[in-house]
């Protein structure tokens, strides 16, 4: 049993449902199976453009947006919305939480929604710009889709939720911070505050324009791949040969509730959000401070907020983007927090399998951690960091290389770093 820190006795939030739309599987079951088998969602781009060097991405090609929305709605919305809606509906169904017409007016006011997204509707905006350049007519929905907060509103409308409809956009930390905000709101006692939140992380903008912008920042892989087999190994966190992240996309969701609300609904939680920590380096727009003190502090704050100690953490889900700088510095930050014990803690980076889905990556990691470790979904395992073939002496921790491993961890830390010098960490219990 974990030790309880005298510095924090704040209540956790119960997790009663999760959902996934990813490049390695649509739906939680397929996502979990893909993680366990070490499946790669990375492939060669379906388009070629002489303006970019990038040749791979991790798109959700198996997802049909018309499976959740009408053709008319699909045409008027950015790509992330049908993905987000699919993941949210799955999470709500698992939680036994009525949505849409199944909710009474009173019940609908007790459920809020928080969307975490980095790029939001940038794909829709770019499409409108392209259309205008070719003499086309702009969509009526250009402005609403370009405003991230309206995308949260779209999800609330589709789900029939009348609680707060919020959007967090803090770069790669967006959906981690969305989960953290939900935890903080559920701990409060403001009059009329919801008992339940649907938290969604979603991003989808695999386009030449976004790839070109990331190439300018020198954060994305530009290696050339001659075959699909080679492309599948394009995302290489912690490997010596890594040359940048692979742009991914997808949506992941969870239903979080006050424990009393879950009990009242007769639902047994299978995981909890126990702690949240967030800091800023105030150092650089796209590079972490090499000392990594604020990243380490975010992890410590999350652990303290959970009422735990560093020795209670049994599993680490790394940010692990596969850039030379990020992987080395994150490894350093983990060592600052856990000292000599850092090498004994199993962990990994699911970005080796799904690429980097930007603002959705935190929720992708949370759902992966829960799906892999919770007995609710089967025999527990640590997801592998695939493509880790040449160990980097600087990255010398246990990243579960290449093959999933048995893992009985109950307390996990999910770490996140983001452009804008941001750091975010969550403690999850299964």
Write the layout of secondary structure elements.
Layout: E1 13-22, E2 25-26, H1 28-37, E3 43-44, E4 56-57, H2 71-76, H3 80-95, H4 105-108, E5 111-116, H5 122-133, H6 142-146, H7 148-159, E6 165-168, H8 174-187, E7 196-203, H9 208-217, H10 228-231, E8 250-257, H11 259-264, E9 271-280, H12 293-305, E10 315-317, H13 324-338, E11 347-348, H14 351-354, H15 361-373, E12 381-382, E13 405-406, E14 411-418, E15 422-429
Parallel strand pairs: 5-6, 5-7, 10-11, 10-14
Antiparallel strand pairs: 1-2, 1-8, 1-9, 3-4, 7-8, 9-15, 12-13, 14-15
Q: How would you describe the overall organization of this protein?
A:
The longest helix has 16 residues, at 80-95. The protein has helices at residues 28-37, 71-76, 80-95, 105-108, 122-133, 142-146, 148-159, 174-187, 208-217, 228-231, 259-264, 293-305, 324-338, 351-354, 361-373; strands at 13-22, 25-26, 43-44, 56-57, 111-116, 165-168, 196-203, 250-257, 271-280, 315-317, 347-348, 381-382, 405-406, 411-418, 422-429. It has 430 residues and is an alpha/beta fold. The model has no long low-confidence stretch (mean pLDDT 96). The strands form 3 sheets. Strands 1, 2, 5, 6, 7, 8, 9, 10, 11, 14 and 15 form an 11-stranded mixed β-sheet that branches. It has a two-stranded antiparallel ribbon with strand order 3-4. The protein has a two-stranded antiparallel sheet with strand order 12-13. The chain folds into 2 domains: 13-264, Thiolase/Chalcone synthase (Peroxisomal Thiolase, Chain A, domain 1, 3-Layer(aba) Sandwich); 272-429, Peroxisomal Thiolase, Chain A, domain 1. Helix 1 packs across helix 15 (361-373).
């Amino acid at each position: 049993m974990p030790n309880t820190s005298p510095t924090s006795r704040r209540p956790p939030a119960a997790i009663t449902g999760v959902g996934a739309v990813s490049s390695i599987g649509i739906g939680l079951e397929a996502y979990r199976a893909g993680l366990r088998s070490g499946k790669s969602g990375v492939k060669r781009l379906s388009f070629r453009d002489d303006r970019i060097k990038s040749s791979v991405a991790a798109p959700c090609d198996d997802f049909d947006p018309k499976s959740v929305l009408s053709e008319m709605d699909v045409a008027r919305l950015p790509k992330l919305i049908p993905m987000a809606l699919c993941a949210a509906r799955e999470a709500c169904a698992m939680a036994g939480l009525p949505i849409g017409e199944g909710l009474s007016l009173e019940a609908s006011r007790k459920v809020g929604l928080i969307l975490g997204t980095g790029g939001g509707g940038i794909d829709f905006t770019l499409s409108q710009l392209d259309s205008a350049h070719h003499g086309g007519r702009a969509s009526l929905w250009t402005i609403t889709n370009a405003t991230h907060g309206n995308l949260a509103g779209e999800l609330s409308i589709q789900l029939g939720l009348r609680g707060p409809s919020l959007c967090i956009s803090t770069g790669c930390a967006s959906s981690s911070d969305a989960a953290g905000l939900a935890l903080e709101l559920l701990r409060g006692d403001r009059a009329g505050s919801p008992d339940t939140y649907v938290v969604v992380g979603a991003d989808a903008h695999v386009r030449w324009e976004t790839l070109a912008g990331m190439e300018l920042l020198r954060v994305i892989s530009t290696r050339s791949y001659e075959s699909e087999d080679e492309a599948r190994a394009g995302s290489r966190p912690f490997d010596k040969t890594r040359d940048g992240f692979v742009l991914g996309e997808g949506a992941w969701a969870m239903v979080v509730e006050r424990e009393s609300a879950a009990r009242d609904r007769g639902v047994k939680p299978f995981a909890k959000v126990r702690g949240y920590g967030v800091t800023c380096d105030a150092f650089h727009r796209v590079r972490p401070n090499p000392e990594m003190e604020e990243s380490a502090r975010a992890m410590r704050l999350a652990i303290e907020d959970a009422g735990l100690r560093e020795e209670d953490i049994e599993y680490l889900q790394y940010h692990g983007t596969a850039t030379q700088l990020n992987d080395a510095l994150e490894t350093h930050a983990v060592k600052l927090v856990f000292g000599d014990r850092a090498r004994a803690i199993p962990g990994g980076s699911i970005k080796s399998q799904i690429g980097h889905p930007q603002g959705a990556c935190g929720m992708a990691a949370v759902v992966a951690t829960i799906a892999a470790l919770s007995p609710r979904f089967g025999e527990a395992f640590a997801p592998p960091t695939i493509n880790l073939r040449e160990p980097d002496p600087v990255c010398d921790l246990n990243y579960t290389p290449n093959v999933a491993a048995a893992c009985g961890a109950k307390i996990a830390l999910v770490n996140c770093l983001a452009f804008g010098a941001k750091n975010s960490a969550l403690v999850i219990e299964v």
